[in-house]
Amino acid sequence: MRFLGITETCDLASLYRRLLAEGHEVRVAISDPLAQGTGAGLIPRTADWRGELDWIRQAGRDGVVLFESVSEGFGALQDRLRGEGLQVIGGSAFGDRLENDRAFGQAMLADLGFPPGDVREFDDAAQADAFIAAHPARYVFKRSGADHAADDTYVGRFADGRDVRAMIAARLAERTAARFILMPYIDGIEMGVGAYFDGDRFLRPACLDWEHKRFFAGDLGELTGEMGTVATYDRSDTFFARTLGLVEPRLRGHGHVGYVNLNTIVNADGIWPLEFTCRFGYPGFAVLEPLQACGWGDLFARLLSGQGGRFATRPGFSVGVVMTTPPFPYSRHQVAAAVGLPVMLDPDFTDRDLRHLHFGEMGSGPAGLVTSGLYGWTMVVTGTGPSIALAQRAAYERVRRVAIPDARYRLDIGDLLAAGHYDDVRALGLID
To answer: What is the largest CA-CA distance in the chain?
Structure first.
């Protein structure tokens, strides 16, 4: 098959390398100037993706365009390319709206019967301040739209909302058109469910995932894109039926082909939806890969066939640890930081070990592998096992055998889940 990747920062570098190893042809167009080193020497590149569309068309049903992000206009562009007869995997304009227009997504979920989270949307800081003053509570602040970072989200601590009011005043004082939402804080366990959508239905099984978003162990520090995840395809039918299974009819007819994830809070009062991810999640795709018994090419072919059904998965859990380097969790647009740091792997790594190393913002230099890219998402290291604890142990054994100057990563990915949160979710009747 032929794959053309269209990306700003090449978050799917590891996926492109896997496709190459499977014998597929791959060309990737990276638009951000500070990301040009990602995949250098490791992935075939092209400067103009539009000039490669005929190359994709010549492959017929074996030609695929892959999109990574939900940046402004990308979903509509994917819809247009599909309308021109191209096979596109990634997202859609509708998926972009579900993810970026938080109030729209929450309204749709409430219409499907999810418990209402009393989401309020604002575009004026003074109006939000007045609302909290009149309705004091603990709130979560989230920006709407495609152009926001993970650390724009703020989870309030005080029961009267005073810290959220202060944060809004500080962050939005100079913004005249910043859309954002306020959600009452909900106590419980954060848990996601994801599946591949073929334009008509979800492929099964769905996955269950538990993300770790704070920068430091113990859930301290900035909210990042993600520092690590625990995932499984096992025993997911019940939770899928109560979540994404309800969303399936609303996605149908919008041309969306790609991955969809719904993040939630679960507690004794129900399932409280937080937000959609309607694209490949990073590092989610890498964490799932060891549990998928088929290659990416075979999975994508099934996704494009429109036949639905189930694909082969492996039992157990996968634990993924994100190894980062400065300027993470910020970008080089904000903070100057070196690239070109050496990445050294244990020479005794087996082929199986190497399959669990998912190169992110890395390239190949004269002396070997080096760091590159915009953010410092350097590598995802995974481990699998029949239990969370065993998968966690396998992941960290590999992490300790990778040497990267100034690398930072969390040491507690999966701790709370193994210590009782998974049993708590099971006790709620949400695990098959």
So the answer is: 63
Kindly state whether residue 72 falls inside one of the protein's structural domains.
yes
Show the DSSP H helices in 268-421 as ranges. Answer: 284-288, 296-305, 351-355, 388-399, 415-416
Q: If DSSP states are collapsed to H, E and C, what string results for 342-367? A: ECEECCCCCHHHHHCEEECCEEEECC
Q: For residue range 228-285, what is the model confidence (pLDDT) as tens digits?
A: 999 999 999 999 999 999 999 999 999 999 999 999 999 999 999 999 999 998 899 9
Look up the CATH number of the domain holding residue 166. Answer: 3.30.1490.20
Burial of 332 (0-12, 13-18, 19+ CB in 10 A): buried
Distance, first Cα to last Cα, the chain? 37
Residue 240 CA to residue 236 CA, distance in Å, equals 6
Query: What distances in angstroms separate CA 48 from CA 13, 32, 53, 400, one per listed residue?
Result: 18, 13, 10, 39
- Domain range spanning residue 35? 2-98
- The reply to whether the predicted model has a pTM over 0.85 is yes
Bridge-based pairing state of the strands 258-267 and 270-277: antiparallel
User: Looking at the chain, how many residues does it have?
Assistant: 432
Partners of 405 in the beta sheet?
A: none
Question: What is the radius of gyration, based on Cα positions, of the chain?
Answer: 21
